[in-house]
Specification:
38% of the residues lie in helices and 17% in strands. It is of the alpha+beta class. The protein folds into 4 domains: 99 residues, no CATH class; 81 residues, Herpes Virus-1; 115 residues, LON domain-like (Archaeosine Trna-guanine Transglycosylase, Chain: A, domain 4, Roll), CATH 2.30.130; 147 residues, no CATH class. GO terms for molecular function: ubiquitin protein ligase activity; zinc ion binding.
Length: 483
Amino acid sequence: MTASRQEGFTCPFKDCGRDHSLGDCSQDVTLAKVMDRVSIEVAHSRRSSDTPTLLDERPRWRNVVDSSKEPRYPASRILSGGRLVATYTMTEIGELKYDSEVAYQTMSPTGDNYEQCDIDMLADLKEATKTELDCQVCYALMLDPLTTTCGHTFCRKCVARMLDHSTMCPICRRHLPMPPGVQSVPGNKRLSKLLSTLCPDLVAARAEAAAQEEVPMLGETNVPLFICTLAYPSMPTFLHIFEPRYRLMIRRAIDSGEGKFGMLMYNRRAVPQGSLGSVQFLQYGTLVRINSVEIMPDGRSMIETRGISRFRVKDWDMHDGYVVGNIERLDDISLAEEEQVEATETTGPAPTQHDLISQIDYMSTQELLKVGTDFITRMQAASAPWLNEGVLASYGPPPDDPAIFPYWFASILPIGEEEKYRLIPTTSVRERLKITARWVRRIEAQRCPPSRDDTESSDSSDEGDVSATDGDSVAQTTDEVRE
C-alpha cells in the first residue's frame, strides 16, 4: 500500500459523505487537458477581439444569505470577446460565482451583440477539445465516461473490458481498486455534460453504434457461442467463467436482457462438421439462458444456465475473441411420426431372450423409458456416488417425461461426452431413449460379464463404445463440468 492510500478524508459533497483514500482522488487528467485547450482558444480570441460587453452578475438569494462575515455585492464588468469569452474571463478572475447567472448588454456603438463571435468561438472550442474527449482504449468518442482513481478517463464499457484482462490502468499502469463490471462506480458527470453540450449529435451516433455492437443476437444470427462442454434442453449447466473473451460475452448477454448464448462441445478429433469443415467445435449444440450469476472480486464468475432448445450451426465468425454463429433451431419429429415409427418397430419378430442389446429396437417407448428409470432405482439402492444428494438437488429427480429423461440421464451419468453428444442431433424421442437404454445394457454387462453369445452380439453392434462405472467407482467427467 502506498503512503497516499494510508491517508483519508471525508467527502465534502452532500450526496456522498463517505471516507475516501487520498490516493484514490487524483486530478481529472482529461478535464484538465480540456480546460488547457479552452484557455488557449480563449487567449487567442482575446488578442484579436474588440467587442465590449457589459456583464452583470445575478446571484441567487441563497448566495447572498450565505455571506456571513463580509457582504459580497454582485460583480459587474465590461469585457471583450463575446459572451462566451467574456463569461470565461470573469470566472477566471474570480468575480463570478459558480451558481450565479449573468445578464449581458452590448456596449457596441452600432448595437451589435457579437453573436457571430460566440458562434465562431463555440465551433473553435468543439474542434479543439474533440481530440481530448476520445477514449484511449477504443479511440472513439467517450461514451458514459468513467474516471479511474488515477485520474484517467475511459468509456465505462472499456473500463469493464480492461478489468477482464488486468487491474492496471493502461496509461499509467497504476492498480485500479474497482469492482468487476464497474456498474456501481459513478460516472464523470462533468465530462458527460460537456460531451452532450458540445457535440450532442456525435454522442447520439456513438451511443447508437455502441448499442449495435453490444447486441448479442439478431434473431438466429450472430448468436454468441461458448465452446466448452455439452448442455441439454431443460437441464441446468454450471459454468466457471474466467477467460476475458467469455467474460465479455457473458456480460453482453446479460446486458441485452435476454441472457442467452449457445453451448458447443470441442471437436477434439477434428472430425469434419458438414459444410463447416474441420472446425474447432461440433456442429450441434444447445441454446441456454442465464439463470443466476455470482461475480467474484477478481472478475471471475460462476453462472447457472438452463437449456432452451437445440440448434445446428450453419455459419460462424469471430467477434472480440469469441465465436458467433448463424444457427438453425433443431426440433423433434411430430408425435404422429413417433407413433408410426414405434408401431413399425414393435411389430417385427422379437429377438432371442439373451440378446439384450437387440431387444431394445423392439421395445415400446414406455418400456425404453422404464429401462432407464429402473436402472436409476437400482443405482440409488446401491448408493452410487454419482447419484448423491448434491446431484439430485442440482438436477432434480428422474423425470417421467420420455422427451426429457435422456437429457437428465446424460447430465448425471459419468460416461464420455462424445457418447453423450449423440443425443443432441437426434430428432426422435424414441431414438434418444434407445441410446440411453443401450448405455444401461452395456453398463450392466460390464458389471456382470455376459455369455459368449451376448458378447458376439454386442461386438457386432454399430454403436459407439460406452465406458461407465458401477456404484463403487465414479468417473470425473460430470464433476469436472460441475466444478
